[in-house]
């Protein structure tokens, strides 16, 4: 029996396919990323095969040395049959795709697939922040929004071009959710200590003095398309995250919470 069994791990998202070697203890090694082709010239499975073949060849790996293949993927997953169900999420042409069968046939290894949100929860409970906890709840908000991004615009009676733009904006919003979550946690912490002026400055004032002028300049004086322009403006919130983190670490907000003991 092998002392430290190893597996090939694959994560399939809307932008990249991530590949790595995972030990039975949850340690990840020799990872790589393969961009997903979105112009229709190559299917996601073809990209996966190309990337995995290249990864194994580059590192001199032999499939026979591994116990199996584990796949996490965006979309609605039918783990029992090893395929993507009706909704493939934001992965292009992913709906109704067989995954584990072709992997087993090509590499001679047992393969399994699960939803990426479920895999996040399992990983955190196994070796991550929730290790040792009896009960774990994992909320994948960004992934849920990205998954539903193509569906919301269908409700409205508008053109296909507008629907495509709306879906792109929703995907960007889902990508930026971790930034917004961190930013809000910093500024609500500051507000809890009575620092309302600081939160006003980095909310309304930041919007009018930084975000809006940046959007105006990019739209008027560059040829940047609207979707990457929107993404660029959203990324300005990283400035607020940095400043909020510094202020929280300094502990200035604690002064008003603790206060002085009555004499």
Explain what the structure shows.
This protein is of the alpha/beta class. The chain has two domains: 121 residues, ATPase, nucleotide binding domain (Nucleotidyltransferase, domain 5); 107 residues, no CATH class. It is 49% helix and 14% strand. The chain is built from nine helices and seven strands, in the order E-E-E-H-E-E-E-H-E-H-H-H-H-H-H-H. A hairpin with a 4-residue loop joins strand 2 and strand 3. Helix 5 packs parallel to helix 8 and helix 6 packs antiparallel against helix 7. The longest helix has 33 residues. It is globular.
The ordered H/E elements are EEEHEEEHEHHHHHHH
What is the 3D shape?
A: globular
Distance between the termini: 71 Å
Helix content: 40-55%
Helix-strand makeup class? alpha/beta
Please tell me the total number of domains.
Answer: 2
Q: What do the pLDDT scores average to?
A: 84
CATH architecture of the largest domain: 2-Layer Sandwich
Q: Can you summarize the main beta sheet?
A: 5 strands, mixed
Put simply, the count of helices is 9
Show unreliable segments.
Answer: none
Can you count the beta strands?
Answer: 7
The level 1 CATH classification of the largest domain is Alpha Beta
Protein traits:
alpha/beta, two-stranded antiparallel ribbon, 9 helices, Nucleotidyltransferase, domain 5, globular, 2 domains, 263 residues, five-stranded mixed beta sheet, 14% strand
């Amino acid at each position: 029996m092998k002392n430290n069994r190893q597996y090939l791990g694959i994560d399939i998202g809307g932008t990249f396919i991530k590949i790595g070697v995972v030990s039975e203890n949850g340690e990840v090694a020799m990872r790589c990323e393969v961009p997903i082709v979105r112009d229709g010239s190559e299917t996601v499975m073809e990209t996966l095969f190309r990337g995995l073949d290249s990864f194994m060849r580059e590192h001199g790996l032999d499939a026979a040395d591994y116990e199996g293949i584990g796949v996490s993927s965006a979309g609605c997953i039918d783990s029992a049959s090893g395929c993507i169900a009706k909704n493939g999420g934001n992965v292009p042409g992913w709906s109704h795709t067989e995954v584990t069968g072709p992997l087993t046939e090509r590499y001679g290894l047992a393969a399994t697939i699960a939803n990426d949100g479920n895999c996040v929860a399992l990983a955190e409970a196994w070796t991550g922040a929730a290790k040792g906890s009896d009960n774990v709840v994992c909320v994948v908000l960004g992934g849920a929004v990205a998954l539903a991004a193509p569906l919301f615009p269908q409700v409205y009676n508008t053109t296909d071009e507008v629907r495509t733009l709306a879906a792109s904006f929703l995907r960007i919003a889902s990508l930026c959710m971790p930034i917004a979550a961190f930013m809000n946690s910093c500024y609500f912490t500051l507000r809890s200590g009575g620092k309302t002026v600081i939160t006003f400055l980095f909310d309304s004032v930041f919007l009018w003095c930084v975000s809006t002028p940046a959007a105006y300049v990019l739209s008027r004086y560059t040829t940047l398309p609207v979707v990457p322009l929107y993404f660029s403006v959203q990324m300005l919130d990283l400035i607020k995250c940095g400043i909020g983190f510094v202020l929280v670490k300094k502990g200035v907000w604690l002064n008003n919470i603790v206060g002085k003991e009555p004499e």
